[in-house]
Each structure stands twice: as structure tokens, then as C-alpha cells.
Fold this sequence. Notes:
CATH superfamily of the largest domain: Glycosidases
Strand order of the largest sheet: 14-12-15-16-23-22-21-18-19
Oligomer: single chain
Helix content: 25-40%
Largest sheet: 9 strands, mixed
Number of strands: 32
Amino acid sequence: MGKRISSVVATALGVMFFLGPAFAQEQSRRWWEKEPLRIIDLVTSTGQITHQDPVILAGEKAAQFYNCEHLEVMDLPDGLDDRGFYFSSKLASKKNRDFLKEYLPEAHRRGLRVLIYFNVHWYKKEFARLHPDWVQIRENGEPLGGVYETGTSFCVNSPYREWCFQILRDLCAYPIDGIFYDGPIFFPETCYCTYCREKFRTRHGRDLPSKKGRKGKEFADLLAFQAQSLADYLKDSRAVIKSINPEIAFYMNGGERGGNWSTGRLNRVIVREQDILGSEGGFIGSDLMRTPIWKPGVTARFLETQSGGKPRVIFSAAGHKPWTYSLLPPPEIRLLYAQTIANGASVWLGMWPSEFRRPEMKTVAEMNRFVADNGTYLVDTRSEARTAIVWSDHTANFYQGSDSPMVTPRNAPRETGVGDFGQEFSGLTEALIRTQTPFDVIDDQALETENLNRYDWIILPNAACMSDREASNLREFVRNGGRLLATFETSLYDETGVRRRDFALAELFGVRFNNAVVGPKRFDFMKPLVKDPLLEGLPGEFIPAPAFHTSVRAVKGRTLVRFTEPLAGPYEKIPRASEDPALVRNSFGRGHVVYMAGDLGNSLQKFHLPEFFGLMTNAARELSRPLLGIENAPSSLDVVLRSQDEGRRLILHLLNLTGDMIRPIRKIVPIQDMRLTFPGVGKARRVFSLMNPRELEAGSDGKGNLQVILPRLDEYEVVVIEK
């Protein structure tokens, strides 16, 4: 018997040796790391669960080619009735239908992984009355209310956490595949409960600081404390889960691009205690002017930087929020999917049962089927981008607009909007997309710790708050030949929002700060002084000016454009150029820097002036190394270039955002006969497309470049090049 076992082991080891380390690595990976997740969250209330047939429900989800789901089997408990749990729990006062026990075999039989949806950020007030010491407390001492208008939220530092852990133990007794926390979260005015105050005092030896100042070391300590409190809660939750079954995946609804000071969701901190990093990148809000169509893709890029290599999930809603039962049209749904998978993330789609059986869901099934059939080309990919735009968490958390002396021109509007970092980022991001330049979204930690030399060009959209270490690494990046574009108050504040006397990157910009910000301006201009590639093709003798600009003086840099003196009125003659530089070039080491003194992105986002898009197009052409040439395509084409097998396989994702004048988009205008050029690629063994499967016409242009013809692009296509 012993010899037989030894023989089997030896054979297995021999097979593993023959297959190589890649096979061994694949075997060691968890299930959530092996293929793209296609997650459905069918928002089914426990009242509806009572009447659900597990066979039918699991079958309908599998028929739409999902391989994973979020399942809610716990109602938001109100403490007053026995509707709460549809699984066996020590906390249930009454035995309800054990729907989880009935459903799991049916789901698994159809290839569906089941992750339990656990809401940990909203509870009914009636339940909170039974546990008043769990409730988050406002700074003024009042309990938090008004969460989703009808409820409240509990604090992760309170005994509430032990209640959660018992539910986790109960759930993990079942053969579930994962647990998802919707939350946890702090709120802008919380939490100042007894437990938070005591925990902070123990760690820092002083009282919990106020959230009102949002500046300096004390506020930085508060932000770090809340992020670590969430991480501690996640760590202990994960320990409970993994002690029972290490194969159960665990993650939460993570941070978006935004001021994390109000939520505590600092992804770089909380990702350490999760198996997956997820964020709401695909919720289409009621104000579509502030919900750009490219948001899911940019959020996926952002999560890739912050994930530490862990899988990413973009949460998208099938409905048009806040109208829960209004389903998005098929082109919007395709683009939600396409942007997510193009950037290496998995799709979560939330919907209500009333939406689930509508005809539009055929589109969802088609996209799920596409991901299932082409997963080989969607996992284990890396970005080939040589351009990066910076989302600065420091700036989002600590910067509140310029606190420099304000010089206000005559006839200026009262409303300022100075220093809107989110708008600055969005404006330059949209302009960058329109240049059809593949790019990454990186953050402060990347600037501090990662090798920046993989990039040719880094864009700093009013990254006002910056540490000395970030500034030092950026100087080294440029010294080594990197190129930089920065706007407005970039580096004028330290990482906690305290203003410096001058830019930390003043040496790179070639300017000095004059201790003043000018604005708001309503109809002023900029005057080009010289001919330069950055100004090529811009119409007219003058360029519209952004609403605000820093007053600077050129020390080393070459001034290309100056702001004019303020206009007396909209129909007056444009006055002479002022002394304030608007656009400055500077060389530093082997690199090159372009500094734009105005809040170009903020104004671009508001007005979409063609001159501003032209400046970014020229900058992209001059400051970045071309990875791709595209002929016969509009600027509304988004491109993502990724690779596999150490670059031997290139995967180009093309997203056609050319559609209706309004959103949600109901029809996409196809692009015909695009010519794609891949510099330096030369010949390829095979070139083919995935969405519309076909071999593509391809060949060398005689200059070492590969040229590919794509006959037609609807919403989305993937071009695969095997070298």
C-alpha cells in the first residue's frame, strides 16, 4: 500500500515537473484569481426570497452566463420581527426558511460561485435603538441619522463588530464561496463615539481631532486612524472567515476617486485585508454631466495601481440611478462592460428583479458570454502605457482650494470654484482620452515608492498637495529623461495641505510663485509669444484663459504664452499681455517640463474649449512616445493597450464613445476602415479580433511598423497581435 502511494506521489510530482512552474503557480491560485468574474447582484428582498424557487433562480442567472453572484440572505434587521435571517444563525430568534441551504447546491450545480452580500453600513433606526452604543456619533455628540433617509450606521470600533463576527461564523458553516461587505464606512461628520475616542487617545495620547479643519498633521492622523480602524475591522473579519475556510473570498465596497477623508476608505490601507479590490465605477447618476462616460475605465486603471496585484472588480448598475427600475439602453451596458474588462478588471452588475427579465438583458448575456469565451485574453495582462496621469489622494483629502492671496479682476463673478481638483483631473483625463494615448492612473504612493522610469510622460492635474519624497522622485524622473506636464498649484502644499512658500517643483517648472492667485476670470485671454509645437494648429491670435491662474515669474523656463490684462467687458478690445506667464517650458537634466499656470482641466471640463483640447493633443504628440497610430477615427475613441507573455502578445481594446448627443447613449455611430499602426512591432504571426471574430488584414509598412486594417468598430472591439 505504501509503495502504491509513493508511486502516485512520484507520478504527480513528475507531471508537475513536466508541466513546469507555470502549472504549479496556476494550481496554487485561488478561484477568484483564475478567470474574470461575471458577478450578478439581483437585489432580492427577504420577503421575495420567501417565495423564490432555487432551481428557477439559479437557472436564470446561469442562463445569462454569470459565473458568480452576490446573494442577500439577511434582511436589514429592525430588531422588531423575525424576518431577518434566511440561514441558520445563533442570532436569529426564529427559524425562517433556510433558503441558503436550498439554494447553494442549485447554484454550484450550474457553475455559480455564491458570495454573500452583507450590508454593514446601514441599519434601521428601530434596530439601532436596541444598541445605542453601536451607533456612529457626530462631532457635536448627536447620533448619526438620515442614512438613506431612513436609517443609521454602526461604528466598527464598537461591540457591533462582535455581532458581525458571529454572523460570519454562521455563514461560513455553509459551503459558500465568498462574503462581500457593502461598507464599512465613516461619514463626513463621524465618528466621535466613546470607542473611537478611547482608541485614538490610546494610540496618540490626545483627543480625537475635529474634521472641520481638514489640514495639518492632526487631521492627517485622524484620516489615518479611520482608515486603520476599517482595516482592523476587515483584518479581524477575514481572520474569522479564513480560520473556517481559506477558500472563501472576502472583500468590500472600496474607495473611489474622491476625498477619502469623509469615508475612511483609503484603498492602499484596506486592500491589505481583502482578497479583491472593488469600487463603484459604473453607477450612472442622475447628473450625467458630472458622470463621464469614461468613468468605469478610469476607475479600473485607478484600482490597478492601488490593488497590489490583487483582482479588481468594478461595480456597475444596470439601472439609471436614482430611478431604480429604469434600465440602461444596450450601448451603455456594453460600454460599462467593455471599459471594465479592457482595463483588466471584472464586472459586477446590480439590478432589481423587475429589470432582470427585460429584453435589454439580452445584451448582458451577450457580454457575459464574450467574457466567458475570451477569458484567456483578459486575465494576467499588464498595461503597456508609457503615460500616466496622477490622482492625488493627498490633494483630494487636504486641499480645499487656494489659500493664497486672491487677485480678483474687475467684473469677475462671485462664485469662484477655485482649486476643484476633481474637475481638474476629469478635464485633463478627458482631453488625454481624446488624444488616443494609452495611459495609467497612478497615485501618491506610486510617486513615492514605484519606479517611474517605465513612463515617458507624467501628468499632474493640480496635484497641489505633495510630499517632499514625491517631489524628489519626480525631479529624478525628469533628470533621467522623463517628461512632465503640471497645472495650477501643483506641489504648492505639503502632503497635509499646509502651504509652502514656493512650489516644491519650482526647479522643474522654471518659475517662482509670486504669492498670489488671479481669478475668477470670465472672458479673459492668453497671448502666444512665440511659435512652438505646443501651439501648433491653435486658431486665432489669442487663446481663452482658464478661470484661475497662479501668478508666477519665469526664472529659467521659456515663456511661450502670457495672460492678458483683464478685459473691462465681454465686447471690449483685448488688452496687452500682462507679466504673468501662462505656459512655460523648461529643461531639467535630460528631461523636459511643461507648466501651465492656469486651472486648465477645470475650465476644460466646464467649457470644452477646442483650444484647450488642442494644447493637450500637441502635448501628447510631443511629450509621449507613440505606441499606436490611428487613421480614420474620431477623438471619441478610447484605446487601451495591454500585453501578455512578456510582450509577445499585444491586446488592443478599442472603445467607441461616438454616440447620441445625450446620455444614456442609445445608439453608437460605427467607425469604418480604421488603419492601426504599431511602431516597432514589425511582423506578426497572427492578427485577429475577438468581438467580431475574424482574421485581420495586417502587414509591415517597410519601416519596421505593423499596420492593421479594422473594417468596422461598433461599441467595442479587441485586436490581438501575436508576434
